[in-house]
Specification:
By secondary structure, this protein is mainly α. It has one domain. It contains 8 helices and no strands. Helix 3 packs across helix 6 and helix 6 crosses helix 7. It is globular. The N and C termini lie close together (10 Å).
């Protein structure tokens, strides 16, 4: 990479540190924003509970085929990365034609693009994450049953927490790790170079597969 390109890329990492308020109503403002650490306080006990259940079900024989846990783990990884990619690309960046639609999309994601370093808009608010968690737990319970849903949900929710950390960290944390810095650069390029590329958060797999990746990183 030449010196000019390096200087241009450095500029991309200098972002707005301001914050904003969308609603005058404290309740509405409160449920559409969250402190960046709150999802970890909420989901860490949930993840540990399903981890405990997974071990318990293997130990007491409820999970009759423990070898299925690894496929469930990778299935959860595949599902989560697809969720984050499709939601980011097709929902958060949907071009709504209605005033209400534009308002909702701005609350969900547009405000984050305008104020990318706002700590209250960098992770998913609990009203959304807990609702989504309940939906996927019920779906997994219905498809996999009581016992096999435990390791699947443990994995899925763990990847959700990794996603939240990656998103927060990409705006606020520097880590000397090649993979992390590749992901961070892709996300910041999405913010500051081209919002129609770089939809993945914890992997660029789907971006590469669907040709929305940045070729210059």
């Amino acid at each position: 990479m030449n010196k000019k390109m390096k200087n241009e890329n450095k500029k991309l990492f200098v972002s707005n540190t301001q914050t904003m308020r969308i609603f005058n109503n404290k309740f509405l403002e409160g449920i559409t924003t969250t402190y960046h650490y709150l999802p970890f306080l909420i989901f860490t006990p949930i993840v540990l509970y399903f981890f405990y259940e997974s071990i318990l079900f293997v130990y007491d024989g409820s999970i009759e085929t423990p070898s299925l846990i690894m496929p469930l783990f990778f299935g959860a990884l595949l599902l989560w990365t697809l969720i984050e990619y499709t939601c980011h690309r097709f929902l958060f960046h949907f071009n709504s034609k209605t005033k209400i639609g534009k308002k909702l999309l701005y609350i969900m994601h547009g405000a984050h693009h305008d104020y990318p370093n706002d700590l209250k808009r960098v992770v998913v608010p609990p009203i959304v994450s807990l609702g989504g968690a309940a939906f996927f737990y019920m779906l997994a319970y219905f498809i996999l049953g009581r016992y096999y849903s435990a390791p699947f949900i443990f994995s899925l929710f763990s990847f959700y927490m990794i996603y939240d950390w990656f998103h927060y960290a990409s705006h606020h944390v520097n880590v000397k790790n090649k993979y992390y810095n590749h992901i961070k650069k892709a996300h910041l390029f999405h913010h500051y170079k081209d919002p129609k590329k770089g939809y993945g958060f914890i992997t660029t797999f789907w971006d590469i597969l669907l040709n929305t990746n940045f070729k210059d990183i």
